[in-house]
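Protein modeling request. Please complete all fields; requests missing the sequence field cannot be processed.
Requester role: graduate student
Desired output: 3D structure, C-alpha cell encoding
Chains: 1
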Amino acid sequence: MTQQSRPAMTMREIRESLGHIKPGIPEPTVQPTGYVVSCLPAGHDDRWTFTIQVKYTGDGLFAVRHGIRQYGTDGTWSYEPDFDEDYDAEAAWLKEHRFEHDEALRLAKQLAPTLTYRGRTVADVLAAPVEDAAETHVVADDSDDPEHVDDCPGCVAAPVGGEDTRSNR
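Delivered output (169 residues):
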C-alpha cells in the first residue's frame, strides 16, 4: 500500500505554523508612491523650485512632474488640460504622460539639471552666494523694535520725532 503524500507547505503556511504571522492576514505590501529628484541640496531655499517629482499614478505607471506641468513621451512639458468629460481624450493624454518606474526615474535624473525658473538655471542657483540668514530680515518703516540695535547690519534707526531724514528716501 502506498502512502499518500501531502503537498509541500508554502512559505506562508510554514511561517503561520511557526507563529511568525497570524493565519489569514496577508503580508503587508510596500508600494513606492513618489520620489523627489533635485540637483539642489536638501534645505536649500530654491530646492522645490528646481525639483522634479516622480509620482505613482496606478497600474505600475508614474508621472514625471515639475510643479503642475507633466513631462510627455514627446519630450515636452505640458499642463494637464481640462477634458470636460471627454474620457477618450483624457485617456490618450494620460497615456502620453505616464512612464514605467525605471524610465520615469531616468528621465527625472536627466531633466533635473536642465530646469530653469525666471531665467535662472540650476547652475546659476548653485553658483549664487548663500545669504547669511542672521543678516537677512525685514523691518517695518520707522520701526523702533528694540531687537534692532546699532550693531544690526542694514538697519538705520528712525529719527527722533518721526521725520525721515535718510537720503535714500
